[in-house]
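WARN no homologs supplied; continuing
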Amino acid sequence: MKHLRRGLLCTAFILALPAPVLSADTDTAALKEATIITEVLEWGETVTALRLEYSDEIDASAIEHSNEHPGKMTYHIVNERSIANLYVNNSGKKDDVGLYGKYVFINLTVSNMDFTTYRDQITFNTTSRHRDQLSAFYGFQSEPVVTRSGKVVAPNRFVTSREICLGVDDFTTFTYSNDKADRTLNYHLYIPAGYEAGRGNAERLPLVVHYPSGDYRYTDHLGKYRGALFSHPDALYWASAASQADNPAFVVTVGGAADSNWNSDFAASRMQQDYVAIIEKILADYSVDPSRIYAISLAGGSNAMWKSILANPKLFAAQISTAYDPYHAFKDVQLGEDNFATMLNEMPGWFFSGLTDGSGAGSLGAGDTRLKGERLRDIAEVMNKRGMKIDIGYGKEGELMWNGLLRGDDAEQLAAAQLARAKTSNARHLVTLYMHGTIPQTMHWSWNATYSNAVVRDWLFQQVNDAPYVPAN
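OK structure emitted
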C-alpha cells in the first residue's frame, strides 16, 4: 500500500507540473517534443533512448548526468529505466554526438543483458504475437538549461508523444492484392536513397529477399504485420548504414495473417506464391538488377525459401539459410538429399547452423538422434560424395567451427578464412557450424552471428545469375 500511495503521489506531482510550451518570449527557449527511440537488438525491439527537441541550440557542456562534485543531474526519468549518458546534435540521429545542437539524447541502459530473460525488455508480446503502441515515458528537466544564444529553458517536465523505430522505420510498408484469389499480403521494402521515385535512370541495384519464420504474422498497433522487422534484426542488417555503404541494395520481407502452408510446397502456399508476385512487382516498379536477386532466411523461413527456389529455379542468384537443414525441411532422407542436390546445382549457397541446435530433433523418425547442425554436416558430406563441392566448416573434430559469440573483425576473419579454404578447393557452396555454447539464448539463434558478419554479406553480393530472371507474364 505504501508503494501504491507513493506511485499515486508521484503521478499527481507529474500531472500538476505545467506541460512544456514553446514560448514567444525572445529571451526564453523551450522544450518542443520528447520522443521514444527503439532499436531491434539481437533479442528483439526495445527502448534504448529518449530524444528531446529544443527550440534553440544547446552546447554539450550545458547538460550533465553526474553525481560527482561539481556535477549535476540535468534530467530524471520517472519510468523504471536508468540514464546511461547524454549528448547533443543537430541531426536528430541517435549516437551522433555533437558539440552542440537542438536535440538532446538520453541514452538508457538495458536493464538486463541476460538472453534468457530478454522478454522482460522487448516491446512485443511473444504469446499474443502483438506489438502495442508504447506507453509514454515521463521525465524532468531538473536544472535550468542555457542555450548557445543565452536563452534559458526553465526546469520542466516532459512526456513522450511519439516513437522513432530505428531500422524498422526505414522500411516502407505496401499491400499486395491478389485480386484473382481475393487476398492481400503486406510487404516491407527498404528503398535506397535516390531510388524512391522508381526506375528513372538510376543504376540497377540488387534485391535481398528475406524469408521470415513464424514472426511474419506478428501484428503491431499500426496493423502492418511488421513482426519480421521488430522481432529479429536479420532483415535489418542488410538495410543498415554500414551494409548499404558497402553494398547498396533493396531489401524486402513480408507479413500477414498466418498461412498454414508457408512451410509446405510452393503449389500449396498462397503466401509463397504471392511473395514471388511481390518480387516481380518490385522488379517492375524499381531499378532492380534481375541478375542479382538474393534469398536469405531465418530458421523456419528456410523451408519456405527452399521450396520457392525449387518452384522458381531461375529467380535467385544465391541464397543463405540459417538454423535449418534439408532433412528437417523435407522429412525424408531421399527427398532431402535429392532436393538439396537440385538447389546446389541451381545456385551457390551458404548454410549456417549451430552444431547442437536441438530444434527439429528426430526429423527423420525416432531413430534419428542427430541434432540440426549434425544433420546439415552429414548431408553436405553426402553431397560431396555425389560430386558437389561444398566447404564444410567442421574439420576432423570440430576445429573449423565458428565461435558464434564473436562480432566485428574477429567474426569476419572466420568468414574470410573459410572463403579462402573454399576458393582453394574450388568449392561453390559452404556449410558453417557454430560451436556449442557460443550462440546466446539457444543454439538455434544462429542468424545474429551470421547476418551481422560483413564478409558473409559481401559474399552474397558477389554472386551473379548468368541467366537473369524474366517473369513468366
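The two ends are 69 Å apart (CA to CA).
OK
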